[in-house]
Automatic annotation (TrEMBL):
Residues 260-464 form the Peptidase M1 membrane alanine aminopeptidase domain. This is Peptidase M1. Pfam families: Peptidase_M1. It comes from Elysia marginata. CDD domains: M1_APN_like. Keywords: Signal. One of its GO terms (cellular component) is membrane.
Length: 546
């Protein structure tokens, strides 16, 4: 791939992520008191006026105060009017500020007592910019016959860009969500969860009902409206549904038959059963590239293998699978089931998901192809700043795609450090089962793999996540029969093994290096070939003249 082409493709990742970070900056500065409640369930009902590009409806929020509170915060873009907020059949006062509202109660709410309020709102579509990564909202388009084709995306701005919800990523409704969308009867409305059928109304409109039976991140709630055709089936005991533009039905059936069963087999092998079986699995065709909307994967990759028909990694294997189907579906395990607590923990979602791509290849094409693919990520890593920073506002201003590729390379390195695949694969599957439907941070991940793999992995995690550069293995040849070695550019007390071969690859040796010099005897520098495919590191060779 030419350098201009590589830059162009990488820009598809880098610029959108920067926009996400800027949009989330204001989201991560909420007063703590007004967020001291636990969402139990959402019940969202909307009437969508396609012609006027307008929505009106309400969201019932069932919640549990964690402390006595007299106010709570709800996010909703300033472009929408809050018509009223009802609590105990009375209208509450509220203050609008920027893209949220502070709801004021007449009396403090008691701790741990279930409560419920309803937010009524309306307004014209807030339209997304650079979907699906940038400013969130509605994506408005048409199919080839001129029928409306509408979708939402909210990763960059949060749920409040189109519906009222609690601020932040670290609270999901424990009891799930009900969603009812009313649209013209000529169209189909698709959202998350399992279909609860439809109600034919007397004004040439139809209400489509959906039920989410698991916790769901509010950013992953989606609305899709089009003249869809529907077909489906079953994979590994899970109901599978496809909502596709009618013009693409034939090629969609062929493409999905080739792609979807394969990722189910591979990912259930490595990560355990699909986490949202009661809700089923859906692919919904959207007028943007794709997104990991829970149980309703957004798909716009043109029924092609690769990333928009290209090998994103230039590895020679990027065209062996449909990137959007494999990557976004892996997010069902990492991102939707296991969710990062803050943007500083975003590497958990994106890194494990990117690593999953290599495991898909391993399952179907073998170890060699998998390792070749994951090593192609090295050309896409910047190593200019830590992935996890001490102060999250720095991360928000300087976010890049290392969360994807560097984290995946780190996981491949950790597998090699452990050097016991039975332990590694079991730990990986146990991780997805242990933290299913839970929100995690860096310490959660490190402590888990430390314990399950029976090795101190914290220095490895810290080096790759909290230090900008990767370890450099220094090799210094002494005369023709000694080689000194140590790690350079690493955190204090860092140690990690490395492997090398000699005599033309006939013999392989594994050694543990620290920041102090150690020695290999009876070999010259020229004899040693370092294995850089299983460990993500730099190698620096110098001959020392005494």
């Amino acid at each position: 791939m030419s350098l201009p082409m590589m830059i162009k493709i990488l820009t598809l990742f880098i610029i959108p992520i920067f926009v996400i970070s800027c949009a989330q900056r204001s989201r991560d500065k909420a007063p703590l008191g007004v967020l001291s409640y636990d969402v139990l369930k959402y019940d969202l009902a909307l009437d969508v006026d396609i012609e006027k590009k307008n929505i009106s409806g309400h969201n019932v929020i069932k919640f549990l105060p964690l402390v006595p509170v007299n106010a709570i915060r709800i996010d909703l873009n300033r472009a929408y009017s809050i018509d009223s907020i009802l609590y105990d059949e009375k209208s509450l006062n509220f203050r609008r500020k920027e893209d949220h509202a502070i709801v004021l109660f007449e009396k403090p709410l008691h701790k741990k007592k279930k409560e419920e309020l309803t937010v009524f709102y309306s307004g014209g579509f807030v339209e997304a910019e650079n979907p699906p990564w940038g400013k969130g909202g509605f994506v408005v388009s048409e199919d080839s016959s001129g029928n409306p084709w509408i979708a939402t995306t909210s990763q960059g701005s949060g749920a409040g860009c189109w519906w009222p919800a609690k601020f932040g990523k670290d609270d999901e409704p424990d009891e799930g969500m009900d969603i009812a969308i009313t649209v013209p009867s000529s169209l189909v409305a698709v959202s998350n969860g399992h279909s609860e059928g439809r109600n034919i109304l007397n004004n040439n409109k139809t209400q489509w009902k959906w039920r989410v039976q698991y916790p769901i991140n509010s950013d992953c709630v989606t609305l899709n409206i089009a003249d869809y055709t529907h077909f489906g089936g079953e994979e590994e005991g899970v109901e599978v549904d496809y909502y596709i533009l009618k013009e693409n039905e034939d090629k969609a059936k062929k493409h999905f038959k080739e792609q979807v069963p394969k990722f189910f087999r591979a990912f259930e092998h490595y990560f355990g059963s699909y986490p949202f079986a009661k809700d089923g699995y859906k692919i919904v065709e959207t007028p943007f590239l794709g997104m990991e909307h829970q149980s309703a994967i957004a798909y716009g990759n043109g029924y092609k293998n690769g990333y928009m028909g290209k090998d994103l990694t230039n590895s020679g294997m990027g065209l062996d699978f449909d990137f959007i189907i494999v990557h976004e579906s892996a997010h069902e395990w990492f991102g939707n089931s296991i969710t990062a607590k803050t943007l500083n923990d975003f590497w958990i979602q994106e890194g494990f998901t990117t690593y999953s791509e290599s495991l898909y290849l391993r399952y179907f094409y073998g170890e060699e192809q998998s390792i070749k693919y994951i090593n192609s990520f090295k050309n896409m890593v910047k190593n200019k700043q830590p992935i996890v920073q001490k102060r999250e506002k720095n991360l928000l201003n300087n976010y890049d795609n290392d969360v994807y590729f560097k984290t995946a390379l780190m996981l491949n390195t950790i597998r090699s450090v452990i050097d016991n695949d039975e332990i590694w694969w079991k730990a990986l599957k146990d991780f997805t089962e242990t933290y299913k439907y839970r929100i995690v941070n860096k310490n959660t991940v490190v402590n888990f793999f430390d314990s399950r793999c029976r090795i101190d992995l914290r220095p490895i995690f810290d080096q790759y996540l909290m230090f900008p550069t990767i370890p450099t293995l220094q090799l210094k040849g002494i005369k023709h029969d000694k080689v000194m070695y140590r790690w350079r550019g690493v955190i204090p007390r860092f140690e990690m093994p490395f492997e090398y071969t000699y005599e033309g690859g006939k013999n392989s040796i594994r050694r543990v290096a620290t920041t102090k010099w150690n020695v290999i005897k009876n070999l010259s520098l020229e004899d040693i070939n370092i294995d850089e495919s299983r460990f993500y590191m730099n190698v620096e060779k110098k001959f020392h003249r005494e």
